Amino acid sequence: MSTNRQATAHSPWRAPILFAALALLFVLEGTVRNSMFSGSWNTSLAILNMGLISAITALGVNMQWGYAGLFNVGVVGFLALGGLAPVLVAMPPVEGGWSAGGPRVLLSLAVGLGTLALATQLWRRMGKGRLRGLAVTGVLILGFFVYRGLFDPAVTAIEANNPARHGNLGGLGMPVMLSWVVGGAFAAAAAWAVGKVALGLRSDYLAIATLGIGEIIVAVLKNEDWLARGVKNVVSIPRPVPYEIDLQQNPAFVEFATRWGFSATEASGIWVKICYMSLFLVVLLVLILLAELALKSPWGRMMRAIRDNETAAEAMGKNVTARHLQVFVLGSAVIGMAGAMMITQDGLMAPVGYNPLRYTFLIWVMVIVGGSGNNWGSVLGAVLIWFLWIKAEVWGPALIGVLTAPLPDGGLKEHLLDSSAHMRFIAMGLVLLLVLRFAPRGLVPEK
Amino acid sequence: MDILNALVAFLNFVFIPAAAYGAQLALGALGVTLIYGILRFSNFAHGDTMAFGTAITILVTWGLQALGISLGPLPTALLALPVGIAATALLVLATDRAVYRFYRVQKAAPIILVMASVGVMFLMNGLTRLLIGVDEQRFADGERFVINVRDFKAMTGLAEGLALKTTQLLTLVIAILVVWALFWFLNRTKSGKAMRAYSDNEDLALLSGIDPEKVVRLTWIIAAALATIAGVLYGLDKAFKPFNYFQILLPIFAAAIVGGLGNPLGAIAGGFVVAFSEVAITYPWLKIAGYLFPGWQPDGLLQLLGTEYKFAVSFVILIVVLLFKPTGLFRGKSV
């Protein structure tokens, strides 16, 4: 949401040119080998694939921010929650894990949720007064103890089951692509719960509440070993695409690779990444299509009307809070989906990696730079910023090397060279601030 | 029933740590609430402001230690604190001039300012990492304990020991002094009154000839001082690690909102509410229960929530306040 909304004329060629320039960067990365580019298609495609996942995340954030002006600071949490889905859906069930305490864990979770629901209902149904407060508190305390009484032994039993290799419940052994939808559903459920509380109040409250839920979701993933082994990580999550090793042993593929002048190892890596890229592109394009259709529909006009003037929209009889909740849940579902896709690609669930600076605030830089309110802008911003973020690892030290060349050798120069990794944060902060101030509509402004 | 030992254990493991932590949160929340009251946005860069101020203080402390200057039983960091405050104040004034003023003049929506504060957060985070790195630093020196466990046991003959760290006592003393000075400033001086007037009603304050830029500058300086003091005390008490200062943002916001955003008294109360709930809920009560009810043998630790979920406590408090009293315990702003 920019502060200045009147449409300034800009060339219709702007977006295509920017996308072409971006494509050129990836081609250079894939073909040119010098101090700036790696000249490896494997690297180039790896950056692109993560860029596409970031693009889908940015799309989700853009729905919340660009369509409705909601500031979600818990992107990392929704992304991580989505990442839980591949583990729970696609991993084979752990032998003995389910019988150790599966039903009891489910029962305890049901008791926990039931307690909250009962407390809510009591609060709504009972008349105002001291009795209501006492009854609700009593239900909550009793429910908590019943929940812990059921939950703790079940968790101990599950985690005691072959702890070195498993110690978790495992998954359902279903196709991994299914988990992309499930991941979206997980994130949507969490978003509904947060949005229900924090929306309709002051705009900062949603930001602070999402900051909290983001940290809590990551903490749960780190500590609940029965769920996804916590910091012990879940490895070898099934893939929707072939494995490199199988390709390398397939004579037809090796012949195909040599015809194109690649070694079998390199070609197998490239082929797997192209498969992922195609899957991600399909998801991305479908999401953009749906989002564009929604934006052009009466619903989209209403959303923009609400964003631009809440009071006026409310006066027209629109339920602002309900619409905000709707778009917040939708956006979070898209983020959750991206989270599931990321874990599918990595084949590894490692909750320690969920750093808010990388997964929340970097995504925000992408959305703002790309052009908030414009889906294509978010995609452009995401892929571009991701490319720069990765390349800054190489370019940063080189740049600092050049800048510090005139300095005499010594402690200061060494310190600056050593800390060039931190320059990325400063650079991203600067980019965010500069775009926000001088080009609040981003690279590809909203139409 | 052994009430005396139970009481000592309670003081040692719950009351004293929670009181020190509460004072640190209160100072942090005071900064957030002042910025909210005057500039009308939630400053996401506050945690990293704390980290920056602490980093500068640590660097100066190391310099002083290298020169052989110390404060005897007190941590040397106290001597370095004014330098840290001054550097932080300069930094936040510079960010205000370069970033926030533009949006203030434009009268941009508060959420845009929040967004800008995220950019500032990135900058400060990078700056802190550049200065001091990402690793944990311990910089407390001087006397470690005011009362240590062994002396306490020898003195009282109780089975349970009580320890009072210098940093904990220092936190409480400094927090009381700072809060007293802040309230004296807000209530008794002309500039303080101008700040309160501006916070209450901007237009009216402008009409009565208050210079808004001066009020804003003062607010930033005070917020920088509060942030640095809170950060240094937190770092002395636990340890300094830049990422922890980002994470402490949530309890600080929770404290400020519980007390009512924009209300300084509320921020202090909020800090203690959050700290005491966090410690009480994540503390295993088994030991204390053992003293109180010797016959009872529970099979758990009597811990309501693992310490790894301490942030969940601030979050739940936040949610409860948002549900039932969105303006906070003490009436804050509901703009």
Summarize the main sheet of chain B.
Answer: 2 strands, antiparallel
Architecture of the largest domain in chain A, according to CATH? Orthogonal Bundle
What Rg of chain B do the Cα atoms give? 21 Å
Report the mean per-residue pLDDT of chain A as an integer: 86
The strands making up the biggest β-sheet of chain B line up spatially as 1-2
Low-pLDDT residue spans of chain B: none
Low-confidence regions of chain A: 1-7
Task: Using the alpha-carbon principal axes, give the shape of chain B.
Answer: globular
Number of structural units classed as domains of chain B: 1
Mean pLDDT of chain B: 88
* Element string of chain B (H = helix, E = strand): HHHHEHEHHHHHHHHH
Distance between the termini of chain A: 13 Å
| CATH topology type of chain B | ABC transporter involved in vitamin B12 uptake, BtuC
Known CATH architecture of chain B: Orthogonal Bundle
Helix content of chain A: over 70%
Rg calculated over all Cα atoms of chain A: 24 Å
| β-strand amount of chain A | under 5%
Quaternary state of the chains: heterodimer
CATH top-level class of chain B = Mainly Alpha
CATH class of the largest domain in chain A: Mainly Alpha
Question: Can you put this structure into words, describing what you see?
Answer:
- The complex is a heterodimer of chains A (447) and B (335).
- With 447 residues, chain A is mostly helical.
- Chain A has 18 helices and no strands.
- In chain A, helix 3 packs parallel to helix 7.
- Chain B is mainly α and 335 residues long.
- The longest helix of chain B is centred in the first third of the chain and has 37 residues, at 3-39.
- Chain B is globular.
- Chain B has one domain: ABC transporter involved in vitamin B12 uptake, BtuC.
- The chains are: A mainly alpha (447), B mainly alpha (335).
- Chains A and B meet through helix 7, helix 15 and helix 18 of A and helix 3, helix 4, helix 11 and helix 14 of B.
